[in-house]
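Reviewer comment 2.1 asked that we show a complete input and output for one of the modelled complexes. We chose the NAP case, as it is the one discussed in the main text.
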Amino acid sequence: MRRKRNDCRSPATTDLQAACANGPVGEMDLDFSGKAALVTGSTRGIGLACAQLLARRGARVAISSRKADVCEQVAANLRSEGCDAVAIPAHAARDDDLARLVSGTVEAFGTLDIAVACAGINPSFDPLTDLSEASWAKVLDTNLSGPLRLARHALPAMGPGGAMVAVSSVNAGFAMPGSGAYGISKAALEQMVRQLAVEWGPHGIRVNAVSPGTTDTDMIRALKQRPGFIDRITADTPLGRIADSADIAHAIAFFASDHAAHVTGQVLVVDGGQTIMRGTYPENTKTGEE
Ligand SMILES: NC(=O)c1ccc[n+]([C@@H]2O[C@H](COP(=O)([O-])OP(=O)(O)OC[C@H]3O[C@@H](n4cnc5c(N)ncnc54)[C@H](OP(=O)(O)O)[C@@H]3O)[C@@H](O)[C@H]2O)c1
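Response of the prediction step:
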């Protein structure tokens, strides 16, 4: 595999490479040199970690969220590291904004190779039948229609080798009190990814999704304050911790990279095993077979 050094790699990455240099396990060589990417919702949390990872591995990146000043600050920080980044504010549900995000990226970088639909919301914990029409519409508009609108603009702007990655959620696969519209929007998003993968495969463009479990970002700030919330999740997670944004960013980067050149229409769950474990026997329980 080709290995190219990048000026703006983080010190942590360099340490990891050094630590792994002589061992059996090495770091995947993610090289996005020459590629242009856009990431919706990239001023905080998973989107920010993803944009930083892509940029530090050589991609030219368009930073986007609703707040122009914050986008510019994130882009400026990346430029100060030697990365190539521009700020293009856009509401992730608005068609005009998303059209401008795509055309602005192509204008800035001359191409578009990677589109990450990361922005997503879960603003209401009401039961599904109590949810207002407005809340339902807002969640579906942002989490499902927004990525479709982005795809409509981004995929035709890409050439063969292009990749779109949508950020779903493990909530797509199970029902949870207070997460009705959100889970439905993400389940439909995963089906949309499969549909787009079929339609865009013949053009050499791949479409995949990453499905995070509970991830330590602002999105779960309110939940984290509930007593016992994190303890309960970590106890029910084989790997014993919630995800951080970098865990999810690496999975997104894999799908965006040429390492995934023959992978399309897939959903990669990144949850520390949260969704494959269902409780435990009480301690000291005997099986009955001695
Ligand atoms: N955190 C979790 O536990 C978790 C688990 C599973 C899946 N996810 C998914 O991961 C994705 C990212 O979540 P996160 O936890 O990183 O969220 P976050 O920390 O709350 O960050 C959200 C980002 O999206 C932007 N944003 C929010 N609404 C937007 C809109 N309408 N248009 C454009 N940008 C918008 C925010 O900036 P502005 O507010 O300035 O616009 C910010 O940059 C979402 O799709 C979410 O559903 C998260």
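The two ends are 51 Å apart (CA to CA). We note this here for comparison with the apo prediction described in Section 3.2.
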